[in-house]
Specification:
The protein is mainly alpha-helical. It has two domains: 120 residues, no CATH class; 144 residues, no CATH class. Helix content is 43%, strand content 5%. It contains 13 helices and four strands. The strands form two sheets. The chain has a two-stranded antiparallel sheet. Strands 3-4 form a two-stranded antiparallel ribbon. Strand 1 and strand 2 form a beta hairpin. The termini are far apart. It binds iron/sulfur cluster (2 copies). One iron/sulfur cluster binds next to loops. The site of one iron/sulfur cluster (SF4) has 10 residues, from loops.
């Protein structure tokens, strides 16, 4: 008997996970109605992982899935989806789930098209490579490694799914920004102040570097990782060998931004840009005190 499909309109995808909120007070997967994340489902694991390319894939998958008569046709869905993909995987060993789609009518939130809050059928996620149990229980390092103020900073500053997923999964980028700011301030950032529009604007400006970084390497990477000999490795910057200088104080940020420099002058220029953004945040934060 065919299983009737539900219209796409998931509410909160991680809130139904038993015990998730006491341990993880900030829902990073589906934080609000403006954005969400699906990075661990392989959202960005494409050679072309530009906003345009990823939006095209997610839209195509959503349209195909929406056109299904019933959940009995998932094999047919997979076949049609594979025929329409015009991109190649970035890291072969990472799974790009075919069931990532937009889960709200406004198409502001990416998520799981098979999620029980969409389908009402938890076992449907066994059609995916990971299976329902792993999909249900997975929490990425953003939950465990970022502090609550760091998580809230990203949630309050970034209001679109494409940038949000890139940033919330980039632990080094977020933690290093906080480390530089808090060292200069001599105190921890107070989350209540992060709702101030100017601070949100400055944070967004900094996080946007993930998408628009002047020194981004020509080679396709995903954050600090690149693909080599069937493995992914960290693309480090060898300051000493190339320019005879010590490691940049912003090294982790520069690596997270997929930087590639042709001269030491470029390194200095990049450092100046980062320092200016960090100073802008410190000035606005101190003025708001
Ligand atoms: S990468 Fe983290 S925040 Fe994003 S969907 Fe997966 S578990 Fe949620
Ligand atoms: S089935 Fe699992 S891997 Fe696929 S989109 Fe849903 S949660 Fe992600």
């Amino acid at each position: 008997m065919p299983v009737d499909k539900q219209p796409l309109d998931a509410s909160r995808c991680s809130a139904d996970r038993p015990g998730s909120l006491p341990f993880h007070p900030v829902d990073l997967c589906q934080p609000d109605t403006m954005k969400s994340c699906a990075a661990c489902c392989g959202l960005y694991n494409w050679q072309d992982h530009s906003r345009t390319a990823i939006t095209g894939i997610v839209s195509m998958q959503t349209d195909l899935f929406s056109a299904l008569d019933s959940y009995d046709n998932l094999d047919e869905y997979r076949l049609r989806r594979d025929q329409r993909i015009n991109n190649t995987k970035l890291f072969e060993t990472i799974y790009n789930c075919e069931f990532v789609g937009f889960v709200d009518r406004e198409r502001r939130r990416v998520g799981c098209l098979l999620h029980p809050s969409v389908t009402g059928i938890p076992a449907l996620r066994n059609h995916c490579f990971y299976g329902a149990k792993i999909c249900h229980e997975h929490f990425c390092p953003g939950y465990g490694c970022l502090t609550t103020p760091e998580q809230l900073a990203v949630v309050s500053a970034v209001q679109d799914w494409y940038l949000f997923g890139l940033v919330i999964t980039d632990i080094d980028l977020v933690k290093e920004f906080f480390r530089h700011v808090e060292n200069a301030l001599g105190e921890s950032i107070k989350p209540a102040r992060l709702s101030q529009p100017e601070l949100r604007h400055i944070l967004h400006d900094f996080f946007s570097l993930k998408e628009h970084w002047q020194f981004k390497a020509a080679e396709n990477r995903l954050g600090k990782y690149y693909f080599s000999a069937s493995e992914y490795a960290i693309a480090r910057i060898d300051y000493c060998a190339r320019w005879g200088v010590p490691e940049s104080r912003f090294d982790k940020i520069l690596v997270s931004l997929e930087s590639e420099f042709s001269s030491y002058e470029q390194v200095l220029s990049a450092e100046e840009m980062l320092q200016e953004k960090i100073h802008a945040f410190i000035r606005a934060y101190s003025a708001a005190h």
